[in-house]
UniProtKB/TrEMBL annotation:
The lineage of its organism: Eukaryota, Sar, Stramenopiles, Oomycota, Saprolegniomycetes. It catalyses: ATP + H2O = ADP + phosphate + H(+). This is DNA 5'-3' helicase. It is found in: Nucleus. It comes from Thraustotheca clavata. Its EC number is 5.6.2.3. Its cofactor is [4Fe-4S] cluster. PANTHER family: ATP-DEPENDENT DNA HELICASE DDX11-RELATED, DNA REPAIR DEAD HELICASE RAD3/XP-D SUBFAMILY MEMBER. It comes from the Eukaryota. SMART domains: HELICc2 (SM00491).
Amino acid sequence: MQPIDQVLHQLLLGTPMSRLHVFSCGHIIPPTHLTGVALSAGPTNQELDFTFQKRNLPKTMDEVGRILINLVRIVPAGVVCFFPSYSYEEQIISHWAGNGQLVAMKEKKTIFREPKSAAEVDAVLTSYAEECKKSGGLLFSVVGGKMSEGINFSDDLARCVVMVGLPYPNPSDLELVEQFKYMEKSGAKITSHEFYSNMCMKAVNQSIGRSIRHQTDYASIVLLDRRYNTQIIRSRLPQWINERTVHYPTFGPTLPHLVQFFKAHKAKE
């Protein structure tokens, strides 16, 4: 799983890169079975900046709400939306409940949230799967949470996966701080900044990869954050996703792009 450079440096510390040959396989699905969109701005042209300083701004949360309202109107079956943390999920959903956007989403799809208790996960997934077969479901989840690891959102469970922001870990975390110190002392060839970015993107890749689970499966991925349009982030996406992802500076082309994608697959059914 991308990014691979961190694994190479940790397992083969001190081995010159010139001696390494890395082989990466493509994915089993045809190229037409996945489409990705990376957005830098929303429907009102509000920049999608989910840095810690700006993600809590009402205008930022409003714009995410507008995007989801548009998506649930055109995406069939299930939509899974990942947030970078439980606290942000709680904050943004509370914000949508207050401004009426949550009601607008419910008009098109039944809303589910990742449960706090692991014992409730199966029940939530069962109910969500049932709604996906009817009018559709919208599942709010958290990167690194109970539903981003070990659960497959195949077929109608995730015809669209939305990733809100970039889930960078807390840089003040004591375990992470000590790991950075060790890397500096050991002379690791990968910098602490690269290691930090790799941790984030591994979590992203693990989450969005849940939507494609077999050869005939198909899904769309929508990445919300202007930073997904930077080379340093794009290079850390799996190649099979990166080469199928278009980068739009504005929201305008997104809906026609996705409508055409789902229309093509509907015709095959």
